[in-house]
Every structure is written in C-alpha cells, then in structure tokens.
Design a protein that fits this description.
By secondary structure, this protein is of the alpha/beta class. About 35% of the residues lie in helices and about 20% in strands. Helix 10 links the parallel strand 8 and strand 9. The longest helix has 28 residues.
Length: about 550
C-alpha cells in the first residue's frame, strides 16, 4: 500500500509538471486583440441566417411588403449557429456588429417605397425588449457567450436619435419626448440636429433636460406583460445613482446600457450621431463605461481582456481626411472628444478607386499616427445604406478584400462581401437592393464563390492573427516586384506583398527578420528560411503574407 501511494504521488507530480508548460504555451499563444486593428463583420440580423423558423411572424405582421422590405427570418439563433460552425473564425472575424435587435414597431409603413416593416431594426418601439422576430434574451445570452468562447466580440447597434414611425398600431410618443417637425434640411448644425431625419420619424428631444413621465403606451405595455413594477424600480435606481434628470435621452441610455450589464456585450455602433448634440455621446460613453466596469466586476470569469468598452459612431459622410472634426458648414464638431473610440470612414471606397494601394496605405498610416493618434476609423467598402459601394456589380471581389483588409485601421466586412452577394436585386426600391438574404447556396455550390471566399479567409485570418496589419506602423520595403511592406505593432511584426507579378518571390526581410528565422507565407502555405536577409520561394499567387513561426 505504501509503495502504491508513492507511485501515485510521483505520477501526480509528473503530470502536474507536464501540464504547466502547456498552460504557459497556451497563454503565450493567446492572440492580442486591439480594436484599432479589429476585423468586424456587419450583418443585418434579419438577413443573415434563419436559425428558428418558429419566430418568423409576430404581432400580425402579415401584410405583403415591397420586395425585400419585410422580415425574411434571420435571427440571433442563426448567427450563433454560424459561430458554432466556425464560419466567422475561418473568415478571420474577431467582432460581430448586428443591426438593432430591440422590439420594433408592430405595424408597417408605406412612405412611397412600398409596404415596409422594421426588419432593419432602426424603428424602436420598446428599447427594453428584444423583438421576437430576432429572438429572446436567452438567445442573445447564448450568442454573446458562444462568440466570446470563440474569441469574437459582440457589438450591438444603438439608436438614441428617434423612435419608430407612427402607425395605426404604434402611436406617437408624448410631445415632451419627441418632435415631429420640422424635417431636417442638413445645411447647418441646427437643421441637422433639432429636426426629424425624414417625414414620420419622430425625433427624440435629446436636447431636453426636463423631467418627463414614461410614455403611456410603454406603461400599458409593461403592465400587460407583468413587468411594470420591475422596470420602474430599475429606473428609480438608475436615476438615484446617477443624479441625472429624467429627460428622454437618459431613459434610453439606461435601457441601452442594460444590455452591457446583463449580457456583457463589448461595444456599440451608434446610429445617426451627427443628428444628436455631441454632449449626448459624452454622457452615453460615461454610462457605457460604468456598465462595462460593473459587468466585469460581477463576472470576472467572463472578462476577455483589458480593452475598454468600444464605441464607434456613424457620422454620415465623415471622412478620415478631415481628422477629428466634422464640418456642418457653420460649425465643426469633434465627436472623438470624450466620446467615440472610432468613427465610420466614408472615404476608403473612393481612395481605393482613385489611388494606388501604396498611396492609400501611406495616407492612412500617416493620418492615424498624427491627426487621429489614439483614435481609429472603421473602414468599409459596402454598407446597408450606402448606394455607392466600392464594387456595386461585384466585379472586383478580390481587390475589395485586399484593399479593405490591408489598409491601416479597423475593417468592416459587410455580410456577403466575402461571397460576392449580389447588390443589384431586381424590383427593389432604394437601399433594399443592398439587403438581400445571405447567399449561402452560392458559398456551398459555386466554385467561383468558394475561390472568392478563400481569398477573404486567408487575408482575414492573417489580419486576426496579427494586430500589426490594422494597427501597426506601415513601412514600404520595395516596389520592384509588386509592393512589399512591413507592419509593426509592439512585438508583432509581419511583411506583406501584393500585386506580385513574378512567381519567383525574392523579398528583402532584413528590416524585420534575422538570418535563420523560419517564416511562413500563410497565403501559399509555405515555410521559408531567411538567408542573407532575404526569402526566396516560388508562389502561384500574387499575394505574400509572411509571419515568423
């Protein structure tokens, strides 16, 4: 018995000694994540993947809508399903941004574009509830937890500027909450902020500091659902803690930050930023930061890293060339100031059309490290409401990926960019043509689509594995055989070649790597050794992605 005990004791020691180095290796291999170099996937919740057909119709939304102007079935379960399948990981995605999931107006509108339901999520009726067409709170909880387990952050979409349109089933909110006129003219600060974006889109009085009562329709709704007392109790606690007035914007901030404390989301993309006073976003940031700190304190086992809560703003027509300011004509506003980490950049698609890659990369490296030092931009080639995408006819899907994913800054892949989902749908009106269902059949069945997807996956994975690609300093190495350059971020260093026109690759890597270093070109999946400061190999591809093994 004594010998058996000694054997078991030695066995335990041996096993523990074997486990510790592997644990250390796992820690060392954990990828660093920085929002400045993130690869964000933007999807319309209703148009990505239908994971639960039982929730496709709610609130008697049974009118026949215009083409692509009704709910198509996509939901939270569908997104979770694709996370579990590894779709996002293979694409190199490390953050997902989905359109708003709060409960939408129940009826449809017909404003000259055909009968339209709130499938897009921007017509809120009740910020405290998830629209059943998108799923349940349990579905959101599973999505966030599954995403985090796979190293993927989650961004929700925040709307504070307006409610949904008024319909027979969706009455207007009280006049101390919203204004219903005038309609914005967009030629100065005042008529961009204190007005309605379009007809019949009531504008929240975000400039008001007056105490207001809850809208009667919300009171009635919550009482019918049996949660009025609980909602009231939470609101009382919020206003007591903050000392803020019970003004319209602060109610909505409370409701939106609840998604942080309850589910642990990692950030918000904020809608219609320039249509709301800039101090609103500073207030929103304060409440988001508080909520995120509370979540981390209460859920230490769920903390991914030390990154702060991420806020990216949609200041329509903001461009990186303007630095920190947006010009209204009569006034310039800095939305980065104590508010946003990043703004959506409406310029990259034009840069990619009008400039060569070398000049685009150098321009973005320069601006992000001077005028925008400490902040970021979110680059995109395609979006849900931009009728002039980089490649409307999907004729250049490879260039779209190369320019988006290799330009300094944060990248936003619009769902279907990676699979050349058509952006020209017959019989649609307006932006509906940009919002078709994700083309999963093409991905599964068409060889050309698979080749496009493979290109996006290779670039995306390299970007996800190396924060230097998006967040690092850019240095040109050579233009002799295509364009080769390095990107360096802290200890992360890579060398990239694009538009290589010879199969015999000969690159000087001595500025980054040493003789004897073993490198891998992840695009062609080859290992090479640095000799005399160079790497030499044959590749059938025009792109080289070099990392140290």
């Amino acid at each position: 018995m004594k010998n058996l005990f000694l054997i078991n004791f030695l066995f335990i020691i041996i096993i523990s000694c074997q486990e510790k180095p592997s644990e250390k290796i796992l820690k060392e291999k954990k990828k660093e994540f920085v929002w400045e170099g993130a690869n964000i996937y933007f999807l319309l919740t209703d148009r990505f993947n239908n994971g639960d057909t039982t929730n496709d119709v709610n609130f008697e939304r049974t009118k026949t809508p215009g083409k692509l102007r009704g709910f198509e079935g996509g939901d939270l379960k569908g997104i979770t399903q694709k996370i579990k399948e590894g779709y996002f990981t293979k694409l190199g995605i490390n953050a997902i941004w989905m359109t708003p999931i709060v409960e939408q107006i129940h009826d449809a509108t017909d404003e000259g574009t055909g009968i339209t339901y709130a499938y897009h999520g921007y017509w809120a009726k009740d910020w405290t509830a998830i629209d059943p067409n998108f799923g349940t709170k349990e579905d959101l909880k599973e999505l966030v937890e599954t995403a985090h387990k796979n190293g993927i952050r989650v961004l929700l979409d925040a709307v504070i500027n307006h409610t949904g349109p008024v319909t027979e089933k969706d009455p207007v909110w009280p006049s101390d909450w919203v204004r219903t006129s005038p309609k914005c003219e967009y030629n100065n600060y005042e008529n961009t902020t204190s007005c309605t974006l379009v007809e019949n889109l009531p504008d929240i009085k975000t400039d008001s500091n007056e105490n207001v009562a809850l809208p009667p329709q919300l009171v009635a709704k919550w009482k019918a659902e049996g949660r009025y007392e609980q909602e009231l109790k939470e609101l009382d606690a919020f206003f007591e803690r903050t000392g803020l007035p019970r003004a319209p914007r602060f109610y909505i901030m409370k409701w939106l930050t609840d998604y942080i404390t309850e589910f642990g989301i990692d950030g918000y993309r904020v809608d219609t930023v320039k249509h709301t006073e800039e101090y609103v976003w500073q207030e929103f940031k304060n409440e988001c930061d508080y909520a995120f700190a509370e979540f981390k304190k209460n859920n230490p086992e769920k903390v991914l890293d030390e990154n702060e809560f991420y806020l990216v703003g949609e200041v329509y027509n903001y461009v990186i060339s303007h630095g920190k300011s947006f010009d209204f004509g009569d006034r310039k506003v800095n939305y980065f100031d104590k508010a946003f980490n990043s703004l959506i950049n409406f310029e990259i698609k034009w840069n990619a059309k009008q400039m060569v890659a070398k000049d685009v990369f150098q321009k973005y490296d320069s601006l992000l490290n001077t005028d925008l030092q400490g902040y970021g931009v979110l680059n995109y080639m395609t979006s849900h409401d931009d009728g002039q995408p980089f490649d409307k006819e999907r004729e250049n899907p490879f260039k779209t990926a190369t320019m988006l994913l290799l330009t300094p800054g944060t990248s936003q892949v619009y769902y279907g960019d990676e699979s050349a989902r058509s952006l020209t749908i017959d019989d649609t009106i307006g932006d509906a043509t940009l919002r078709s269902m994700m083309n999963w059949e093409d991905i599964n069945n068409l060889d050309d689509t698979k080749k496009i997807l493979t290109h996006w996956q290779k670039l995306g994975q390299f970007r996800a594995n190396h924060p230097a690609v998006g967040a690092g300093r850019h240095h040109v190495i050579s233009e002799d055989n295509g364009l080769t350059f390095s990107r360096v971020y802290n200890q992360d260093q890579v060398i990239i070649g694009i538009d290589m026109f010879e199969s015999a690759i000969n690159i000087d890597v001595s500025s980054i790597f040493k003789d004897g270093d073993l490198l891998k070109d992840t695009y062609s999946n080859q290992e090479v050794v640095v000799k005399s400061g160079k790497v030499n190999f044959i590749s059938e591809f025009s792109i080289v992605l070099l990392e140290k093994i």
